[in-house]
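Exercise 7. Given the encoded structure of a 353-residue chain, write a plausible sequence.
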């Protein structure tokens, strides 16, 4: 399915894999040219899904169609699938060129044609000058691009990327992420990316599928996911305070919590979010504030994040607040300090659950 619709071209899968007490039950579809990211915490089932697509983990039930052709019974080596593994798994004794040519050679392509194809791919990756270099002499970013070229050399109809940037340091990751996005934009078939890094998912993918406990809990564009999270995991990733309750007009009666005045009128079950930066803290109950939302809280944690201080609060409404270092110093905050937290209704965002 793709937003509830079957797709004939591209990927159409219902992956059911049972492994001990864990069960993956995931519907996944993508059209040619689309990059889908599976995003979720460790143990959610992302890698199991990728292994099922590659043929490394057999399906317990379900289906796996690629361009209308069933793949469930095909062994991995016969599937039109390319894989970029987390640690790249380049052959240490082969040059970059021979690493990339290896896949086509295994599929019956002549040595000359395989090396020509490999050279063209390395040139596209900006690695023509490293063709004769072995993996141990490549930088992390270069090794990642060689691994991508090797996966593309067999001209797959499905490209799988397992945490492709995880092995890189922060500076290299930024550069290679941008390069990888350009290469994926040129890929005409389906690409499925597994990651637990929200920035990788937001930058590289056209669509996100958030997986928790073996199931999809939310699906949409990166902007939709960031704007309207539906689980605590997603809210934490995108940096929002998230609550659920029952809406009556502008009021949202939070489950087990206070009533919050929201930015819009709703009726029925609803989510409500606001960013930590929207929270204002006071040492004493403010008399002149225009904020309709005001709660008595206690400092449970303080953490420096760049030029901001993240304050974790418990009390009438557990929440996170971001302050400047100057504001935090002026408030003289310490663990256990009682404060008042306020959020203006206009800075909240309510939406149907």
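Solution.
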């Amino acid at each position: 399915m793709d937003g509830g619709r079957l797709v004939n071209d591209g990927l159409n899968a219902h992956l059911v894999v049972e492994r001990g007490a864990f069960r993956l039950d995931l519907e996944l579809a993508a059209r040619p040219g689309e990059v889908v990211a599976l995003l979720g915490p460790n143990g959610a089932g992302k890698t199991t899904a990728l292994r099922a697509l590659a043929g490394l983990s057999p399906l317990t039930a379900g289906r796996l169609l690629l361009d209308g052709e069933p793949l469930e019974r095909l062994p991995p080596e016969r599937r039109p699938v390319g894989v970029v593994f987390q640690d790249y798994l380049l052959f240490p004794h082969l040059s970059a060129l021979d690493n990339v040519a290896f896949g086509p050679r295994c599929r019956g392509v002549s040595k000359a044609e395989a090396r020509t194809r490999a050279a063209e791919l390395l040139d596209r990756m900006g690695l023509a000058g490293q063709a004769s270099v072995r993996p141990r002499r490549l930088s992390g970013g270069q090794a990642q691009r060689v691994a991508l070229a090797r996966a593309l050399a067999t001209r797959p109809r499905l490209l799988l990327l397992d945490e492709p940037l995880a092995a890189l340091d922060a500076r290299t990751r930024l550069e290679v992420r941008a390069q990888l996005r350009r290469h994926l934009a040129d890929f005409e078939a389906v690409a499925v990316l597994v990651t637990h890094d929200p920035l990788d998912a937001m930058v590289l993918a056209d669509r996100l599928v958030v997986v928790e406990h073996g199931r999809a809990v939310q699906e949409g564009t990166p902007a939709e996911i960031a704007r309207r999270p539906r689980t605590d995991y997603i809210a934490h990733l995108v940096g929002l305070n998230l609550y659920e309750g029952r809406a009556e007009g502008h009021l949202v009666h939070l489950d087990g919590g206070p009533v919050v005045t929201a930015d819009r009128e709703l009726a029925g079950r609803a989510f409500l979010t606001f960013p930590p930066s929207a929270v204002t803290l006071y040492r004493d109950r403010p008399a002149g504030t225009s904020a309709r939302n005001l709660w008595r809280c206690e400092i449970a944690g303080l953490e420096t994040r760049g030029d901001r201080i993240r304050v974790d609060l418990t009390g009438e409404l557990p929440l996170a607040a971001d302050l400047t270092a100057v504001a935090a110093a002026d408030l003289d905050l310490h663990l256990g300090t009682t404060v008042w937290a306020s959020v203006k209704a206009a800075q909240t965002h309510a939406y149907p659950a």
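Remark. The radius of gyration is 24 Å. Students should compare their own answers with the one above.
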